[in-house]
Design a protein that fits this description.
This is Sugar phosphate isomerase/epimerase. One of its GO terms (molecular function) is isomerase activity. Keywords: Isomerase. The chain is an alpha/beta fold. It has a single domain, classed as Divalent-metal-dependent TIM barrel enzymes (TIM Barrel, Alpha-Beta Barrel), CATH 3.20.20. The chain is about 45% helix and about 15% strand. Strands 1-2-3-4-5-6-7-10 form an eight-stranded parallel barrel, surrounded by four helices. The protein has a two-stranded antiparallel ribbon with strand order 8-9. The protein is globular and about 45 Å long.
Length: about 300
């Protein structure tokens, strides 16, 4: 039997809980579960095709729980079919949440992927790959086969208004196909999307001309900050439209991707506004990482200290 003091204490707690709005109570309860930390496998591009199992095992041992896949020198999904890769990831306790594909038409820029923003790093020449221009339905079907929740356009040409128009048409039709398949379609930015092209800002065109039920966004925090934009301002301008983030740091002066916590980005205020953004998953990424497994270990440990 409860003693009188414990009874009063428990009754007060229940009464307080009843006074909370459902969302407030949900928020408090949600704090008991830590946000899983994911990693973008492009970070491990230099090693993953040489030892897929070993790389995934190490990623899991560091403490990462979620994966976002990208390009593979073996083609497909690191040489596997979508379901095979999903099962392999699961065997290591990893959840495959998202996959990157190329927009259309796509031309590899000088210096490698990413719009040449880390041209000093060694990015290998990629094999021919399917793009959303000609293969969007197949890429959507493969994502569905693998059970991923998100399909992300990693990059698309935006140097001219004609390129932007073509890219938007491709994003629209891919988003419609994803919606039918029950997959969320998103666009991943670099810094170029925030630079004027013939008087227009590509990112503004994407957000205004394509509806939010067709296109969400994966915000690369580093590249948007490099462009001079505060991520929190974007969250407030487009609340709920950023279910995915790329969390990467940049070195001061050179803006080369480095381990989280060793660059100049301040992540705390960004994470404090995660609910406004609509963030569901985030992935640590370091483009052209010189020692991928060591680098993502440092990033994981530092990120845990930064965001608790």
């Amino acid at each position: 039997m409860l003693d009188r003091r414990r009874f009063i204490k428990n009754s007060s707690a229940l009464a307080f809980g009843g006074m909370l709005l459902p969302n407030q109570l949900k928020s408090l309860l949600g704090r008991t579960s830590a946000q899983p930390v994911g990693v973008q496998l492009f970070t491990a591009m230099s090693i993953i095709d040489k030892d897929l199992n070993g790389t995934l095992q190490k990623i899991a041992s560091i403490g990462y729980q979620e994966l976002e896949s990208a390009f593979s020198m073996k083609g497909g999904y690191y040489g596997l079919k979508p379901k095979e890769f999903a099962d392999l990831a699961k065997s290591f306790g990893l959840s495959w949440k998202s996959h990157h594909v190329l927009g259309a038409p796509f031309k590899m820029p000088a210096g490698g992927a990413g719009g040449g923003q880390f041209a000093k790093t060694a990015i290998p020449k990629l094999p021919p790959m399917k793009t959303l221009l000609t293969d969007h339905q197949q890429l959507v079907d493969e994502a569905a086969e693998g059970g991923v929740e998100y399909l992300v356009c990693a990059s698309t040409p935006i140097k001219t208004l004609d390129e932007i128009k073509t890219s938007m048409e491709v994003l629209q039709k891919t988003g419609e196909a994803c919606k039918k398949a029950g997959i969320v379609f998103a666009y991943h930015n670099h810094s170029a999307e925030f630079e004027k092209v013939e008087g227009q800002i590509p990112y503004d065109l994407f957000t205004s001309q394509i509806s939010s039920d067709i296109l969400k966004f994966e915000l690369d925090l580093a590249w948007v900050i490099k462009a001079g934009i505060n991520p929190v301002d974007l969250f407030k301008k487009h609340p709920g439209r950023f279910p995915l983030w790329h969390v990467k740091d940049l070195s001061k002066g050179t803006n080369i991707p480095v381990e989280i916590g060793t660059g100049y980005l301040d992540f705390k205020p960004i994470f404090e506004n995660a609910s406004t953004s609509g963030m569901k998953h985030f992935f640590v990424e370091q483009d052209g990482a010189p020692s991928p497994l060591e680098n993502i270990t440092t990033s994981f440990n530092n990120l845990k200290k930064i965001i608790g």
